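>> received
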Amino acid sequence: MKGEVISKEFQKMVWIKDKDGKEYACYIDDLKNIKRKEDLTEEEKAKCTDLSVVLGDSW
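>> returned
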Protein backbone atom coordinates (compact mmCIF):
# COMPACT_ATOMS: atom_id res chain seq x y z
CA MET A 1 0.00 0.00 0.00
CA LYS A 2 2.66 2.56 0.98
CA GLY A 3 4.73 1.66 -2.07
CA GLU A 4 1.80 2.32 -4.38
CA VAL A 5 1.14 5.73 -2.82
CA ILE A 6 4.80 6.69 -3.04
CA SER A 7 4.98 5.47 -6.64
CA LYS A 8 1.97 7.58 -7.66
CA GLU A 9 3.47 10.70 -6.06
CA PHE A 10 6.89 10.01 -7.62
CA GLN A 11 5.31 9.84 -11.08
CA LYS A 12 3.93 13.38 -10.62
CA MET A 13 7.41 14.84 -10.09
CA VAL A 14 10.13 16.27 -12.31
CA TRP A 15 13.76 17.09 -11.56
CA ILE A 16 15.00 20.39 -12.88
CA LYS A 17 18.49 21.87 -12.94
CA ASP A 18 18.33 25.66 -13.12
CA LYS A 19 20.68 28.04 -14.92
CA ASP A 20 22.97 28.12 -11.87
CA GLY A 21 23.30 24.33 -11.76
CA LYS A 22 21.12 23.79 -8.68
CA GLU A 23 18.75 20.84 -8.89
CA TYR A 24 15.15 20.88 -7.70
CA ALA A 25 12.45 18.24 -7.31
CA CYS A 26 9.09 19.70 -8.30
CA TYR A 27 5.53 18.59 -8.85
CA ILE A 28 4.75 19.07 -12.53
CA ASP A 29 1.39 20.66 -11.64
CA ASP A 30 3.26 23.50 -9.90
CA LEU A 31 5.18 24.34 -13.08
CA LYS A 32 2.43 24.63 -15.67
CA ASN A 33 3.78 27.86 -17.15
CA ILE A 34 7.45 26.91 -17.44
CA LYS A 35 8.76 26.91 -21.00
CA ARG A 36 12.44 26.10 -20.37
CA LYS A 37 14.09 24.77 -17.24
CA GLU A 38 16.49 27.72 -17.30
CA ASP A 39 13.49 30.02 -16.79
CA LEU A 40 12.55 28.59 -13.37
CA THR A 41 11.37 31.61 -11.35
CA GLU A 42 11.96 32.23 -7.66
CA GLU A 43 8.24 31.63 -7.06
CA GLU A 44 8.42 28.25 -8.81
CA LYS A 45 11.60 27.33 -6.91
CA ALA A 46 9.75 28.05 -3.66
CA LYS A 47 7.20 25.35 -4.58
CA CYS A 48 9.98 22.82 -5.20
CA THR A 49 12.51 21.06 -2.99
CA ASP A 50 16.11 22.18 -3.36
CA LEU A 51 17.94 18.85 -3.52
CA SER A 52 21.19 20.32 -2.19
CA VAL A 53 19.37 20.94 1.09
CA VAL A 54 18.06 17.37 1.21
CA LEU A 55 21.15 15.53 -0.02
CA GLY A 56 23.89 17.87 1.23
CA ASP A 57 26.95 19.19 -0.56
CA SER A 58 28.77 15.87 -0.74
CA TRP A 59 26.08 14.09 -2.76
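>> The first strand starts at residue 13 and ends at 17.
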